[in-house]
Structure formats: C-alpha cells, structure tokens
Amino acid sequence: MIQQYMTDFESFLRNAAVPNGQQTLVSWTEKISGIDPLLFFANGSSLEGERHFWYSQKDDFYLVGAGPAIMDMRSSQEWEHVIESAIVHNLSAVPGTGPVAFCGNNFQTEQLRQLWKDFPATQYRIPAFTLTKTEANYYITINQLVDGSHVNEAVTVILEQLKTLMADGSMSASPMQLTNKQELDSQEWKRLVKEATDTIKATDLDKVVLARAMKLEFAEKLQAAAVLRNLMNSQQDSFIFAVENGSACFIGATPERLVRVEAGTLHTSCVAGTAPRGKDAAADAEIGEALLEDSKNREEHQYVVEMITGVIRKYADNLRLPAVPELMKLRQLQHLYTPVSANLQEGASMQQIVQELHPTPALGGLPKEKALAFIADREPLERGWYGAPIGWMDSYQNGDTAVAIRSGLLDGKQAVLFAGCGVVKDSDPEMEFEETAIKFRPMLEALEVTE
Q1: What is d(CA 30, CA 126) in angstroms, rounded to the nearest whole number?
Q2: pLDDT recorded at residue 271
C-alpha cells in the first residue's frame, strides 16, 4: 500500500520544492486500509518526536499524530500564515485530513513553571504524520518542509518511518503497580473553599472554580498507550486525548466539548452540575432527578449557559438549544448538560470563539476576571494545561476543542492528577472535596488504582 503511492509522492515532493532554499510546508494525504489508531500511537514511540491522540466516541473519529514536529507554532496567526503558503495534495478534503495542527495552551499565565516545564503557554503543532479515522475510512497525511535539496533521502526516511508506524503488532503492558499515593494540600484546599464562600458572600464574586491535585508514584515507567486503552474501555462518552511534550504526556478523558466547527456549523456544550451514578437503575434515576431539581447545581449550570450563548451570538446565527438541561450520564458521574448549535458567520473562526469562551464559568467562575484573579492569588496548584482548551484544527477551517479536565500529567514513573469544582455562596467544603474525589476516578481507573 505504501510502496504504491510513494513514487507519486516523490514526484509531488520534487515539484513542490523551491530551488532558492526557502522552506515550504508540503502535505500529502492518501486514503489507506485500516490500522488500529491506538497501535499507530504506540508504534510512534519508536520515532523521534512527540505524539498526539484525539478520539471522539460519539463521532467515531480519531486523529493521531506522530513523528518529528514539522511546525511548532505559538499562535493561531502563525498557523494561518503557514497554511496560506502550504502546498497540499488531498483529494478527499475530509475534516481532519490534510495539514492538521494539534493545539493546547495554559489555563492562564503562571509565574511558576516546574511541573509543566515542557508545555509552552500556547502550542500549535503539525507532526510529520497524521492518521485520521472517520466512521467509514482511514487516511494518512505526510507533512514535510521542503527546500529543494535531499528529496531522495527524505523519501527514503519517510518510507521507513511509515513502515514503523503501520507495522502490525499487539500492545502488551505490565500491570501498573502503585507505590505511593498522596492527596496534595487537601486540608489547605478545604480552607480555601471556605475562604471562597466567604468572599462570594461579601463581594460581587458569584462563583469561582477551585482545583486540586493528587500525586501517584509507580514501580515502572507509565506507558501512555496503555492508559489510553483503559480510558477508551471505561470512558466511552468522553473525548479522549493525549499530548506529549518532552518526557511528559498530558492525558485524559473529558466529557466537555468547548467548540466544534464542521462545514460552517458550530457545536458546543454547556456542562456544569455534577452528581455520582447510582448503584442500580432506580437509585441512578433518583440521583439524576435530584440533580435536575437541585437549585445550587441548576444555578451553576445556568451561569455557564448564559455565558456561552452570549459569546456564540457574536459569531453565529440561528442559535439552537433546549429550554432546560438534560442529563449526561458517564461511567462514574452524571452532569447537567445543554447542547448548543448555530451557523457560523462568514469570517468568524473557531479560534476566535475558543479564545473568548475560555475559561467558561464551569472552569473559571463569574465574573471571569475576578474569579481568575482569586485563583491566581490563592490557589496553590500549578494548573498548566489542566482546564484549558485542547484539540485540533485543519486547513479547511474545521476543528474541535474540548476542556482538558478528568486528566493527568504522566512523567516517567509519576502521575499528577487534577480535579476541580465550582464554588458558590452555599458550597460546603467537605461536599466539594467529595465531588473532586469522584472526578479523580476516571484517571485512577485508567491507571489501575483501586480506591
């Protein structure tokens, strides 16, 4: 399969090369026979460069990046400039094919950068290889910077790297053996929740989202592919992601889409308000009904709906959403959920909307600037990319982003997990602590840690 089209690719590469030494992004996309996206990701560990993984179960859609970074950019403007001059061969034009940038950024500016030292404030990365799986088909995209020299050598290297990525095999991993588990600053965090409720009662701060961390240590180096496999098996209704930078891998399964754009239609979701699942169907239904009727959770959810729809109306028309929230039922949790869709206005982009939405009241609070100031001044956690938008965009103005929650940072034998909750005037520190404990469960289960 690879051999059949490499001759054509070599010709394309030669024709695209600029003889004066100026480098040009060249992108070639080909429909291929199927390969397990998780195996493609695992095989990528044998190549130089960092890996990326994105899976949307609802859409049966995968994007997997591997190989050296062809472009590693720090702004959406830089991405747009690169795409304007790129030379692209893509007969499919399917969303997620052609040049794709995997993107992520900090929750907000942080003075201390130790835990997240390998993760820049903003990142738009085009890897050498991207595997795209839609409901029906598989595609491979090859991205290269070409300057007219060494084309023969480049094709030889690409062919060898593709063989590595597409190799058949099985994924085997040893059980993950936990050696130490530590809840970081738990008593201090409860005191902070009390301080937040007092501040909300005394000022015009309505809500602030506080996060905490858990540190785990294991006997052996953690394998991101094995953690991803466990997440895919247990968190079927989530967006599953992984981003490698240096020795660390940020990984998670989030239920919360921020913005998706495809063919000019915008989709987003308002997720706020949380309760556990019940032990049986009757208990689960009772808990869900109580969540729908709970004033604290409904108030928190309505904050999010009003903020998100207020931003969307600036960039899109024909806004569509239900009058009351629904229940989103996940393996360990259920949430209040309001889906929103609209028609994107001409000239508007996904990144404009993402930048204005982040952080939503579900991740920051209200009013936004006062909540962010409270977090920056008082929260001891280094959030890094936790709670921030993560996702991808293609050269056809399609893309998808989710809010990076239910997540952890793996580095060697260590994992640091993150969880947060919305604090309002009636919040109880012990109950909020228990809510965050529930939110750790997806990653604990993926790391094979029993509570």
Answers
A1: 17
A2: 86
First vs last Cα of the chain: how many Å apart? Answer: 47
Catalytic residue among 50, 133, 207, 370: 207
Q: Is 346 in the active site?
A: no
If one counts every other C-beta atom within 10 angstroms of the C-beta of residue 201, the result is: 11
Using the structure block, give the residue that is written with the tokens 């929650």. 405
| Closest C-alpha among 323, 334, 268, 329 to residue 297 | 334
Angle of the 429-446 helix axis to the 186-202 helix axis, nearest 10: 130
In the residue annotation, 256 being an active-site residue is answered as yes
Please say whether the beta carbons of 330 and 236 come within 8 A: no
- Catalytic pick from 50, 256, 262, 300? 256
- Smallest CA-to-CA distance from 386 within 297, 256, 270 is with 256
Cα–Cα distance for residue pair 354/48, rounded to 1 Å: 31
359 preceded by a cis bond (ω within 30 of 0)? yes
Q: Read off the DSSP letter of residue 278.
A: P
3-state SS class at 115: coil
How would DSSP label each residue in 231-268?
A: HHHH-TTSEEEEEEETTEEEEEEE--EEEEEETTEEEE
pLDDT of residue 184: 83
CB-count burial class (<10 Å; 0-12, 13-18, 19+) for 257: buried
CA distances 250 to 32, 53, 67, 384, 440, Å, are 29, 10, 17, 10, 15
Q: What is the pLDDT of residues 48-94, one digit of tens each?
A: 999 999 999 888 999 999 999 999 999 999 999 999 989 999 998 89
Please provide residue 437's backbone torsions phi and psi, each rounded to the nearest 5 degrees.
-60, -40
Question: What residues contact 201, with CB distance under 8 A and at least 6 apart?
Answer: 425
For the chain, residues with pLDDT lower than 50 are: 1, 3
Predicted structure pTM score: 0.92
Which two three-digit tokens encode residue 220? Answer: 């052996």
Q: Which residue type does 315 have?
A: Y
CA distances 441 to 35, 57, 178, 214, Å, are: 30, 19, 15, 11
- Biggest CA-to-CA distance, the chain: 71
Q: Residue 362, SS3? A: coil
Distance CA 385, CA 383 (A): 6
Residues 6 or more apart from 111 whose CB is under 8 A from it? none
pLDDT digits (tens, 9 = 90+) for 393-450: 999 999 999 999 999 999 999 999 999 999 989 899 999 999 999 999 999 999 999 8
